[in-house]
Please model this.
Amino acid sequence: MDHNKLALPVGTTLDRFIMRKQEDFPYATGELSQLLRDIALAAKIVNREINRSGLIDIAGAYGSQNVQGEDQQKLDVIANIRFIRALRNGGEVCTIISEEDDEMIQTGNNQGKYVVAIDPLDGSSNIDVNVSIGTIFSIYRRVSPTGREGTAADCLQPGTHQVAAGYVIYGSSTMLVYTTGNGVNGFTYEHSLGEFFLSHPDIITPKTGAIYSINEGSSDSFSPGVAAFVQHCKDQQFSARYIGSLVADFHRNLLKGGIYVYPATAKNKSGKLRLMYECNPLAFIVEQAGGKSSNGTRRTMEIEPQIPHERCPFFIGSKELVEKAESFIANDKEACDHTPAPEPTPKKAVAAK
Ligand code: AHG
Ligand code: MN
Ligand code: MN
Model:
């Protein structure tokens, strides 16, 4: 991929980078640029909350479950509120779908051209133990006419329609990594200046790698193909690395080369990860970085979503490793079936507005 035309030096601020990228598109109105800045602002606020989480009363369980029946942590709820508020105030987004909310969230900005899908806080189980967590987002252009609320059709577009996607990793440093379809760039947050600076220009993921990331605690219910692929990784003496925060596992493998797998298991029959909030945005990024993402048989971004909270098996990372995994599971019907999970019954979903 040649993005030299767009190259900007390391140390460029995120704001300037976004502005300069916009200049490469003469007809751009600046709304997407503003939307990306809104997300960066919310990321800074969430980053501040996370950094203080041991000191103030925001760690631990919130005492409720989200629509998918998962226990919500206080930071899940706080991050959801912060991102929704930033997107609502920004004005470019008509509708948001969030992992933490049952229903589509109408921002009231009916002129907004964009729709956002978001996992406001990824890696909930790691919040209280000071392990890297993240935020994942995906941006689509609405397909319905402006002037009214966004629709299900706006929110349920395949990943190939994404206009931008990214993640924030709150790790040993805080980084924002995003793509608008012209390569992938990473920005590191400088706390004392309150700015993201370009630190990882034009990220290209290695074609192959020697890391595999999968929760082997579920290995009893791996399909034969997935089990054989894991054995192959061991035979190759790959390193097993699994943080349990998708963003962190993905980020490491993106930079170093490797594969992340969350297959169908007995507990999660369609896989655990969510197509709209987790899989599609990371699939867009990995493809832009030269890698690959699949549900085992099919390119992640070509799956037609049926419901916002849909889950799918997930194989993502270095191209050669994802292709290797696909070859192992080619005859493995149950590992690759993509049957959307039925809409779960809402359990005390928190209206986080
Ligand atoms: P979330 O915190 O947004 O619900 O996501 C948790 C996900 C993902 O971050 C991680 O990779 C995966 O759950 C871990 O699941 P297991 O504990 O089943 O391995
Ligand atoms: Mn998540
Ligand atoms: Mn989450």
